[in-house]
Write a structure and sequence with these properties.
Blueprint: H1 2-14, H2 22-33, H3 44-51, H4 57-69, H5 78-89, H6 93-106, H7 108-121, H8 127-130, E1 134-140, E2 143-149, H9 158-163, E3 184-185, E4 188-189, E5 196-200, E6 203-209, E7 219-223, H10 233-245, E8 250-252, E9 269-273, H11 278-281, E10 284-287, E11 296-300, E12 306-311, H12 314-329, E13 347-356, E14 359-368, H13 396-399, E15 402-405, H14 408-420, H15 438-448, H16 454-476, H17 483-495
Parallel strand pairs: 2-15
Antiparallel strand pairs: 1-2, 3-4, 5-6, 6-7, 7-9, 8-9, 8-13, 10-11, 11-12, 12-14, 13-14
Helix pairs in contact: 1-3, 1-4, 4-5, 6-7, 10-12, 14-16
């Protein structure tokens, strides 16, 4: 099969495989697909075609088809097959790590670029699938949002996430443990995963790139020890260590509580990447005056409640971040439904750090995960009327204005378009799964009618989904942007000696 040699030629260019090993790899792959006799010659045109590919998925698809035809797959599905083949063709972890060290010593930025390219080339970051995601931007005055209907990320349940917060069972203990490197089992395929060890806060951590790639060079930094998410002074030290190690990336930590935190609370980890988040581009609302802090501090003009601190002095920044976090974690104001603790803790922060030259910039998003009878899913969470668009926890990424919406919306946006263009009239024809959109479609019809052309319909639907995302972020604000909320925020700032 020419595709075997084409894949090897692709990997010689993109994964730095040595041509000396060509026969070895050809035979390994042939064995995996059940071919024991194949033509080993390919044309110069086919070699160039393979080398110019930006993804190996088309070749992998052909090889999978041949393996299926030869009845050698057993219970191996497509995803497992691809990861297994690319693991064979990807250098071992020791070689990858040593190369990163050499590259880093020469040029920090290039080291990360090279490693990211490897993770794309070896099919760990699945760019073909990511390219099918539906994306758009939304601007409202001086605020903006980025919205993606992510077709490769399953929708998660907040209650299930909370149940797994202290899960320490099985091997690997969770989806981001270091033991996942090369692992295959229980429907998890990480054979082609490669990780890079780093030291954060004098602890062993590592980083890898996310296979979902929500944004440019989306990475995850993970504690080598499977230990629950936490935010204390050591968290800020580790975040600042990371941006010293990679000053071109932002890095942040999900709040360590259900509802307002991330989807993996059982394992301490951060997320970051090479992306200018909407949060970073909004203006200032209120300037702060902070004792013993030489830098600049202010409240951001953002949807949720965010404090920003800028300083060239790393130590004073560590101190103020811990001081404000400790104060918030123990702060209550019943007038605006903020109770820091009942039988469990409710207040937490979502911290984000980045650098601008030698200056550190840190953000603290104030969070609270309390529920009540009116809002059983969370007082400061997406309210029930917006769950047709997103019901999952609003974690680090969404809180910064980059929304990841569930894949069902691709189908449901098409259904909405059918109603707005008059192709469909009867809401009773909605399936059980799509019934969640009944009220939303009714509102769209009342506002825009049913005689729109398809382009206008889709434009209007995206606009209305964007407005829902805005409202979700407003829901998450512990201090609302109304008279009561502004007064309560000022009271918090004064009591915390920030104003």
């Amino acid at each position: 099969m020419k595709e075997i040699l084409m894949l090897i030629k692709y990997c010689e260019k993109h994964l730095n495989l040595n041509k000396i090993n060509e026969n070895y790899f050809a035979n390994r792959i042939a064995s995996e697909i059940g071919e024991d006799n194949f033509e080993k010659n390919i044309s110069l045109r086919e070699i160039k075609e393979a080398q110019n590919l930006t993804s190996c998925e088309a070749l992998l698809s052909v090889l999978y088809g041949k393996a299926k035809e030869n009845n050698v797959l057993m219970n191996t599905d497509y995803e497992n097959f691809c990861c297994k083949i690319m693991d064979i063709l990807t250098k071992r972890p020791e070689e990858i790590r040593n190369k990163f060290k050499r590259d880093y010593a020469k040029n920090k930025r290039q080291a990360f670029i090279n490693f990211h390219k490897l993770c794309v080339a070896n099919y760990y970051i699945k760019t073909d699938a990511i390219s099918k995601n539906i994306k758009w931007s939304y601007i409202n005055n001086d605020k903006s949002l980025e919205i993606t209907v992510n077709l490769s990320k399953p929708e998660k349940n907040n209650k299930e996430t909370a149940k797994k917060a202290n899960d320490n069972s099985g091997y690997p203990k969770c989806m981001i443990c270091s033991e996942n490197e090369g692992y295959c089992g229980h429907g998890v395929y990480r054979q082609n995963l490669r990780i890079i060890p780093i030291n954060l806060g004098n602890e062993k951590w590592f980083f890898q790139y996310s296979p979902y790639a929500y944004f440019d060079e989306h990475l995850i930094a993970v504690n080598e020890c499977h230990t629950p998410m936490k935010i204390d002074k050591s968290t800020f030290i580790k975040l600042l260590d990371f941006v010293d190690f990679a000053p071109f990336y932002f890095i942040g930590c999900n709040a360590c509580l259900p509802i307002v935190g991330g989807s993996i609370l059982a394992h301490d980890h951060f997320q970051g990447g090479f992306h200018d988040m909407p949060l970073f581009k909004c203006g200032k609302k209120v300037n702060l005056s902070v004792e013993n802090f030489s830098g600049e501090a202010y409240v951001l003009n953002w949807y949720n409640s965010v404090l920003c601190f800028e300083s060239f002095d790393r130590k004073e920044l560590e101190d103020i971040l811990f001081k404000v976090t400790f104060f918030w974690e123990n702060y209550s104001d019943l007038d605006v439904d903020i109770i820091c603790k009942t039988d469990v803790r409710h207040n937490a922060v979502t911290p984000i750090v980045r650098k601008d030259g030698q200056k550190y910039i840190a953000y603290l998003i104030l969070r609270n995960n309390r529920t009540n009878e009116l809002y059983p899913e969370g007082i400061f969470h997406a309210h029930k009327q917006f769950h047709n668009i997103k019901s999952e926890a609003i974690g680090l990424i969404e809180a910064m204005g980059h929304f990841i919406l569930p894949p069902r919306l691709k189908r449901q946006v098409q259904i909405m378009s059918d109603y707005l263009t008059g192709i469909e009239y009867d809401l009773n024809k909605l399936s059980k799964e799509d019934e969640i959109q009944r009220d939303f479609i009714s509102k769209l019809l009342l506002k825009y009618g049913n005689d729109n052309d398809i382009n206008r319909a889709r434009k209007l639907i995206k606009k209305e989904i964007s407005i829902v995302c805005e409202n979700i972020l407003i829901n998450t604000a512990v201090f609302k942007d109304d008279e009561s909320g502004r007064n309560a925020f000022n009271k918090f700032l004064k009591k915390g000696r920030l104003l």
